[in-house]
Specification:
Length: 262
């Protein structure tokens, strides 16, 4: 079922610090989108992307406004909101399977069910045969896949990703994009994805949200048909299509415009 406003930011402001040194990182940001959307947020460094994601994650309380998910205000971190950072934050002393199953285990969930879900997500992310290894034995891309699998084992209502592929080499990154895209298509989950790469945003997203800095605001929303069309299309064809190129140029011109104004 698709509900508009599954995720809502209502006039969300965030101020860091007090007095003359205070930074208004986000000013009355309004954004709402539906369940199943894949929302990519782009914008110059320091425009408040991470701040915005942290308010939805529940790590940061806004100074003004409200953030809500599925009709309920966000009041702190919860497993219904899975978070993946640029650097995978894994437990080095736990095996791959133990890392993936950490959330369900902590909540004391039914063991057989939790094991089944761990197996499902480790298979889906291509890590099942590495289940008894430790994070240091994995490549950077595999570690990041494990961080994603771990978040998905909690069956989140929304997956929040802050430049998750930013630290990977170009080939691994493309591969991870395709994998994430396939998981999204298969599950229909809701994703909020921050990236510096306009190409990545236009390829993955059902919509690109462009933010402007100082103070951080939503500048423009660009709807994209490609993510849903790509299911049965060759991605190279999608990326060389006129619609894809026009959307990418629109996002790039907005970002260039901001840099010249700065
Ligand atoms: N903990 C903090 N204390 C003070 N200022 C911060 C803090 N975190 C972020 N900022 C400032 O808020 C603004 C937005 O930061 P951030 O959300 O990290 O931007 P982005 O992720 O788009 O690069 C920046 O000017 C940054 O310096
Ligand atoms: Mg950031």
């Amino acid at each position: 079922m698709t509900r508009p406003g599954f995720v809502r930011f209502d006039e969300v402001s965030v101020r860091y610090g007090e007095g003359a040194g205070a930074v208004l990182a986000l000013e009355r940001a309004d954004l709402a989108f539906a369940q199943g959307d894949f929302v990519c947020i782009v914008g110059p460094s320091g425009c408040g992307k991470t701040t915005m994601l942290q308010t939805l994650a529940g790590f940061l309380r806004p100074t003004g406004g409200t953030v809500s998910l599925d009709g309920r205000p966000v009041e702190g971190p919860a497993p219904e909101r899975g978070v993946v950072f640029q650097q995978p934050t894994l437990f080095p002393w736990m095996t791959v399977a133990a890392n993936a199953g950490f959330g369900p285990r902590m909540r004391g969930e039914n063991r057989a069910q939790a094991r089944e879900r761990v197996e499902y997500w480790l298979r889906t992310t291509g890590l099942w045969e590495f289940r008894d290894r430790y994070p240091y034995e994995l490549s950077g891309g595999m570690q990041q896949r494990l961080a994603i699998a771990r978040a998905l084992c909690n069956e989140p209502k929304v997956l929040l990703m802050d430049e998750p592929f930013g630290a990977l080499d170009a080939l691994t990154r493309e591969h991870m994009q395709e994998e994430l895209h396939a998981v999204w298509r298969r599950t229909g989950m809701t994703v909020v994805f921050i990236t510096h790469s306009v190409e990545e945003a236009v390829y993955l997203g059902t919509e690109v949200v462009v933010m402007s800095p100082r103070p951080g605001r939503i500048l423009e929303r660009i709807p994209l048909p490609f993510a849903r069309e790509a299911a049965d299309q060759d991605i190279r064809r999608v990326k060389s299509g006129a619609g894809f190129i026009a959307a990418r140029e629109r996002v790039l011109s907005l970002i260039w415009g901001m840099q010249h104004d700065a």
